[in-house]
Write a structure and sequence with these properties.
The protein has 3 domains: 7-112, no CATH class; 141-305 and 320-335, 3-methyladenine DNA Glycosylase, Chain A (Roll); 347-434, no CATH class. The protein is an alpha+beta fold and 454 residues long. It is 31% helix and 18% strand. Strands 4, 5, 6, 7, 8, 9, 10, 11, 12 and 13 form a 10-stranded mixed sheet that branches. Mean pLDDT is 83; it is low at 1-22, 37-44 and 110-117.
Length: 454
């Protein structure tokens, strides 16, 4: 077999082979093996050349080898062959040296590419996966993805003290983004943001002596002001977090696009993606457009059609206003009541279950409290609260807690919500009770996502 050009270790540009850009595997084979292209042959030899193409391409495919073209900063173009497993490593190594790598596609795949497909990613390797049908592009819709820019990074690190709308803008920008780590391509379908400042967010990330367990960037990451990591915290393992200097963004719904066997992950843990300090982030054009609209309006609300879905999945501090900030956003692909991950505020909308089950009654109570906070009211009346009661008395845990809340207003029919410790203790118990069943609801949402992908 003729020697293969190895640009990774080549310091002398004379060692590089100058060739025409190889768009297909056949073109790369032509130059790699010294086979003249059909345009250089008489018609009588065309069939022979074609047979040689097919034979060599068949051999490469049988041992899982792929051809690719490399474009250094010089005008030269080089070619080589690698395995699918090694190709991501080679592409990353080349990128560090300022060398662009374009994987080749077979003539069959090249002819089958649908020119009407509008999904675009400004990354050669992902575009190669799309063109060879190695990732599922259905969830990407007809969107375009670009690697996050310096301006966007600055936006994600702007001080929220001088713009409460920046919380909603940042959540919208990251919703539907792609995370890429070597051959792993993850679609972020839902993300919820937590401020790093406790006075802005009672649920801010707690810091401890273990700095490695923090989502805050320290400057040695690919983007310096953004850290993409998995951390274990608050009784949850493998929390996938996109962290800036201003916030930590918890991924609560995601989908691996490069594997047919892995199901969507909904909830606080993400096990199927393994980020490093060099993980790349690509934002969608639709999210950029919506984020710009929110920025222009200085809107603290992400959308108008479902306020409760913009609240995070929480278990405490329900008498504190910052618990009810709009910080949760879903991708276009999953932004509906049936495919978003469920929370204590949205479980009431689940198709399954009795309307007055513990889960739905508890969710209804949480929605009531959120509405009081949305209206910036400090108190609510027991008569208002009693309207959510089931028609018949029950002896379930949540119903008994509902009765306890009514008892708090037995004197003057009014209950103060701000800082009410007795009310907080009751709401905490309800949240603890109805949170575990959310896992089953999320499993059903996961199945709906899979159905839509077909």
């Amino acid at each position: 077999m003729p020697p293969i050009s190895n640009i990774l270790n080549a310091d002398n540009k004379d060692e590089m082979v100058s060739i025409k850009k190889a768009k297909t595997t056949a073109e790369a084979i032509t130059r790699l093996y010294g086979i003249q292209s059909s345009s250089d042959h008489e018609s009588s030899s065309n069939s022979t050349t074609s047979s040689q193409f097919k034979m060599i391409e068949g051999v490469l495919n049988s041992i899982n080898l792929k051809a690719y073209t490399m474009f250094p900063n010089t005008k030269d173009e080089c070619y080589s062959i690698s395995t699918d497993v090694q190709l991501p490593r080679i592409m990353m190594a080349c990128e560090e040296r300022g060398i662009n790598v374009v994987p080749c596609v077979s003539s069959e795949n090249n002819n089958n590419i649908d020119n009407t497909t509008k999904t675009e990613v400004n990354n050669d390797y992902i575009q190669y996966l799309i063109s060879t049908n190695k990732i599922n592009t259905t969830p990407l819709l007809t969107d375009k993805y670009t690697e996050i820019t310096e301006n966007q990074l600055e936006l994600l690190n702007e001080d929220w003290n001088f713009g409460f709308h920046l919380r909603a803008v940042s959540a919208q920008l990251l919703a539907g983004c792609l995370l890429v780590e070597k051959n792993e391509v993850l679609l972020v379908n839902c993300i919820e943001l937590y401020s790093r400042s406790k006075h802005q967010d009672i649920h801010s990330e707690r810091f401890d002596s273990a700095s490695s367990n923090s989502s805050a960037p320290i400057g040695d990451e690919l983007y310096e002001t953004i850290k993409i990591s998995n951390i274990d915290r608050d009784n949850s393992h493998n929390k996938l977090i996109i962290g800036s200097k201003i916030f930590s963004g918890l991924v609560t719904s995601s989908l691996r696009l490069d594997s047919e066997n892995q199901k969507p992950e909904l909830g606080p843990s993400t096990y199927f993606f393994h980020p490093t300090s060099t993980t790349k982030l690509f934002v969608s054009s639709s999210s950029i457009k919506r984020a710009n609209a929110l920025l222009a309006k200085k809107s603290t609300q992400i959308n108008n059609f479902d306020k409760f879905a913009q609240l995070r999945q929480l278990r405490s501090n329900f008498t504190i206003p910052t618990t009810y900030c709009f910080s949760r956003c879903s991708s276009r692909f999953t932004d509906n009541v049936h495919m978003r991950p469920y929370t204590i505020f949205t479980a009431f909308c689940a198709e399954e279950g009795d309307e007055f089950s513990d889960v739905k009654l508890g969710s209804s109570i949480m929605r009531f409290m959120a509405t009081v906070m949305f209206n910036q009211e400090r108190t609510f009346s027991c008569k208002q609260f009693a309207l959510i009661a089931p028609p018949l008395e029950k002896k379930t845990y949540v119903y008994l807690q509902y009765k306890k809340i009514l008892e708090l207003g037995s004197v003057n029919d009014t209950i103060t919500i701000f800082g009410n410790l007795a009310l907080e203790n009751i709401l905490f118990g309800i949240a603890e009770k109805i949170t575990p069943p959310l896992k089953e609801l999320n499993n059903k949402a996961s199945k709906k996502i899979l159905q839509r992908m077909k």
